[in-house]
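Follow-up to my post from last week.
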Amino acid sequence: MLEIDLRQSGPIPLNARFTCAPGETLALVGPSGSGKTTILKAIAGLYRVANGRVRVGDECWFDSQGGVDLPARARKSGFVFQSYALFPHLTALENIMEALAAGVSAAARLSKANELLSAVNLAGLDNRLPHALSGGQQQRVALARALAREPDVLLLDEPFSAVDQATREKLYEELANLRRDLKMPVVLVTHSLPEATLLADRMCVLYHGRTLQTGTPEDVMNRPASIDVARLISMKNIFTARVAAHEPARLVTILDWNGLRLEARLQQAHAADTDVSWVIPSGSIVLHRKDRPSKGEWENPVSCRVVRHVVMGDNTLLALSPLHAPEQPLTLTISTHVAQRNGVWLGVIASVSLLANGIHVIESHGMLRGGSLLSDS
Amino acid sequence: MDWIALRLSLVLALTTSVILLPIGVSLARVLAYREFRGKSALEATLALPLVLPPTVLGFYLLVAMGGASPIGSLYENISGHPLAFSFAGLVVAAVIFNVPFFLIPMQRSFEAIPLEVRQAAACCGLSRWRTLWRIELPLAWPGLLAGIIMTVAHTIGEFGVVLMVGGSIPGETKTIAISIYDEVQAFDMNAAALMSAILLILSLAALAITNWLSRRSARV
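User reply:
Got it. Predicted complex:
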């Protein structure tokens, strides 16, 4: 188990706490300058933080109070740098062999290095120098080199940012396959939410060095802990309301949204008669079908006018302005053919249901202003 | 043609390079990778031989090596010979006046190695020594070679400091540059011309090689 607790006020402010279990992949997500890479470098011993601890299993790598600060070479971590940082004068094979523990015979190191090259699908490219490899191949060498040391922690710093989309998707798949065999904690730094959702078991949202929320991607994406997290993860549907009542018997919380009564899943942490924010993922907004009313239509029906209609290939982005609260439009993406079949065009009136289970209530206050800061592509 | 002087110059250049190599590599690494108080002052001091008139540098070295100075008297007590006006004194002087010529190309080469490559070496568990031997020196070798070539060329050609510290003792301190001066004083212009031509070719070759190396190191 990797246990992280890092705190300092400057020059890069940090207040980060999280754990990562063996075999688990934790994604550190946050906008540029949120301290993701600094945390990774602090784990590896490449950056010294003023206060805190880094523990891996029974070993203490860093403890400011106990005066423990192992140098990077003494910490068994595998680090894949954003720039890959391959040794430019050494071949792919030599890069990997360099990281294999000394004391092992040359023949054993050679065979292990070849094995690692095969594991990252680079067999046959062993004698290439890094500059003769493509970005994706360099990334694979960097990964094989990081694994060569049989690290206790694998640290990946935006490993997919320097490759094109097609290569990236291939590398995602390869990493996902490789991950099944990895027994150590894996910490992945990324600013891409789809990447975190795809590859990580849990994600940790960072802003200005602070861990705002740690949870499964599904949890964080659907139930952000604060309005800041909601904004950071590009949530489009963030609104204000008043808590009208809680009905524990029916497992619902009643919200008053500009005079419209909404039923949400029971969330008693927010007292009745307080002003709150609430969010709903796009997937929990269901368009009512014109011809065939469905059973879910009784669930928080809202009549809206279509104020934005952007066809993006197979999908259509809609902004729906509720008739009771025109200044708080709902944003959702639906299939283009669904939009067409139901006659959803700019200016028409359409009805949607807001699924009670998707409505998540949060405190109104936050630090951030403005829109999302994370890449949703 | 004064072959003894040429031989002396070459031995002096070689000895100086061998002594400067470990000192220069260590200093260049420290200056390239470490930040510390007084670093700018240290860099300025080490670069002084570039701008100081050779006679001024020679004068201070002569004073420092003289029997009246602690260094000079210590050397004399141990070896039985004075340090000034000896080959050993010339070596000490050559090491000092060559520091910037060796250090600067070496330091630039170390600085050109990306920080993340050195960090990757640490994350791969490489010891400091192995990092230097397997990663840093192979990447910084153009600077290392440029430093050695500059040192050799500069030592063979140096006049002012050598004359101040060593005088002109044949076989002991009379280098080829001093010999050219002596031949001109003795109106043997042919000998002076031949030796000057040798120095000219050596200097040109040194510059050509260092230029080629710096272009090569910029490409890596």
